[in-house]
Amino acid sequence: MKKRNYLKGLRVALAILFFVPILLFFVDFSAILPDSVHRLLHIQLMPALLGGMIGIVVVQFVLVLLFGRIYCSAICPAGVLQDLINRLFCIGKKKRKGSRRFVYHKPANGLRYGILGVTVLLALLGFSELCLLLDPYSNFGRIAASLFRPVVMEVNNLLADLLMKVDNYTLYHVTISTVTTAGLVAAVIALLLFIGMTVWRGRLFCNTLCPVGALLSLVSRYSFFRVTFDPTSCTHCGSCEHTCKSEAIDSRTLKVDTSRCVDCFNCLSSCPKGGLQYRLQLPGKPAEIKPETPHDTNSRRAFLAAGATVAASLPAVSALAQRRRRQRGKGHKHAEEVANWAPLTPPGSISLERFKDKCTGCQICVVRCPSQVLRPTGLEYGLDFMLKPRLAYVNSYCNYECRVCSEVCPTGAIKPLTVEEKTTTQVGIATFFKNLCVVHTENQDCGACSEHCPTQAVHMVPYKGTLTIPEVNPDLCIGCGGCESICPVRPTRAIIVKPNEVHQFVEKPKEEEVKEIVVDDFGF
Fold it and tell me: pTM (2 decimals)?
């Protein structure tokens, strides 16, 4: 009879404790959850590394050294998602021998440590593109933001329609406006990769492609608490090997590859005689890293060939995307000029180059932005800005004192700002195109841009007769987009915020003095 596995229950409870709030934080379109949930994102390893959060990184490595790769089984949302995929794949199958069997495979060390080395080298050189593509947390974020969240919103809209038929207006329609084609494609590719690799060979992604898993494996091979065989109790039935999602248990030689074990404890549950135990074992010799086998070498060659193909094609695709962006601007010199501008990065990003280096495109700022002005990009701004968010003043603008994106960003790509800093940070300067303004073209009053400017950087000046026309004071403009979002001119608006590649600071507009008036008698 199998022993009750309390360790597995504890692992599942921890996974739920971390995974559910993170998932809800991404799909919460009504902002019901408090922004304090973002602290669960800050303990993710890749954001902590990029953000220079040394304390969190040290704690994570100490946990791995003590208990093994608990991070991969309970803290990382992508790891938990893979476990859910594996569970869903098993639904409907009879619990018989062979229904879902894993088999021990030798580790592809050349592949996983090669990817880790390239990732670290590029990151040190200031190129975070590989981190963006392979970071498990960021991939989960893109899946949640561009796939799960829209599904939840559509279900909400469907329920709202049904309730309205019975005069119940508890729910209301919401618009899906933050999903871009690039974000959707990236999310679909990431989800299909997780599904394919999980269904094929369990935690293969975590032990071959994931740089976080490879980094942790360097420490977990020395972990104090680990799963080990008890030779006196083991019957060599192979149940532990067939339930190991990491394919790290060799029941023939009674060895457990602790560098790949993710501490799911499924093996402990499957063992009928207690032949496996999770116990303290002071590290002697680390888990053996065997020389590359022909299989490893072929895998690495295939990876390098595929990587070379992708690397060769991406610049061409990026150039094509930029060309299409410029072509959309043709037909009007102002539109063509705007098409050549750099992306507008959010307040707190400090500069375009810094933002490129630190942002992994997890899209938490996109989904948490109250104004929904942040949009993930494709390749239109180049490969080094792919999937990173930019300010797009299509239907709204950046609220004057709002700092949500800077508070939730886990990597520090968007630096936390005070209210004073937020209201004086100049991300760009409004540029007025007089030849497009309705005051000039139609001789009509407007002034919408001036009315929506919180700093009065855009103000109206005399034009013709009683008409007034906008004028921009760059010393007051913070680039919030209030003017651009409200401008009625289409397709190219008459006033557009031109990005500052390095953010500047402006003087906060002085409030008018209110003179105290003493009223005698009745004030008449």
Answer: 0.86
Residue 128: domain span: 6-95+109-222
- Predicted pLDDT at 125: 84
Residue 362 is assigned to a structural domain of this protein = no
Contacts of 35 (CB under 8 A, 6+ apart): 368, 404, 407, 408
> Long-range contact list for 285-288, CB < 8 A, 24+ apart?
286/221, 286/222, 286/259, 287/221, 287/257, 287/258, 287/259
Q: Which of 222, 246, 263 is the endpoint of a domain?
A: 222
Q: What is the mean pLDDT of the chain?
A: 86
Burial (CB < 10 A; 0-12, 13-18, 19+), residue 342, is middle
Greater confidence (325 vs 9) lies with 9
**CB-CB contact of 2 with 243 (8 Å):** no
The count of domains in the chain is: 2
Instruction: Give residue-wise pLDDT tens across range 365-381.
Output: 999 999 999 999 998 89
CA distance 391 to 348: 12
Q: Hunting for tokens 């490969």 — which residue is that?
A: 383
For residue 434, the domain's CATH number is: 3.30.70.20
| Cis amide bond preceding 491, omega within 30 | yes
Cβ neighbours for 36, distance < 8 A, ≥ 6 positions apart:
none
Domain end point (choices 222, 245, 271): 222
Widest distance between CA atoms in the chain: 104
**Residue 290 within a domain:** no
Q: What is the DSSP string of 118-150?
A: HHHHHHHTT--HHHHHH-HHHHHHHHIIIIIHH
Q: List residues bridging with 391 in a β-sheet.
A: 374
Give the span between the Cα atoms of 19 and 363, in whole angstroms: 17
Banded pLDDT at 2 (limits 50, 70, 90): very low
Annotate 186-229 with DSSP letters as a single string: HHHHHHHHHHHHHHHHSSHIIIII-HHHHHHHHHHTT-SEEEEE
**Which element (helix H / strand E) includes 22?**
helix 6-27
Q: 282 falls in which pLDDT band (50, 70, 90)?
A: confident
Please identify which residue in the block is written with the tokens 């060939």: 305
Can you tell me the distance from the alpha carbon of 119 to that of 50, in angstroms, rounded to the nearest whole number? 12
Q: What is the rounded distance in angstroms from the CA atom of residue 474 to the CA atom of residue 456? A: 10
* Cβ atoms of 412 and 476 closer than 8 Å: no
Q: Which two tokens stand for residue 176?
A: 């899906």
**Nearest alpha-carbon partner for 147 in 189, 196, 85:** 189
Neighbouring CB atoms inside 10 A of 397's CB total 22
Which alpha helices (DSSP H) does 236-369 contain, by range? 239-243, 266-270, 294-328, 333-339, 352-358, 364-368
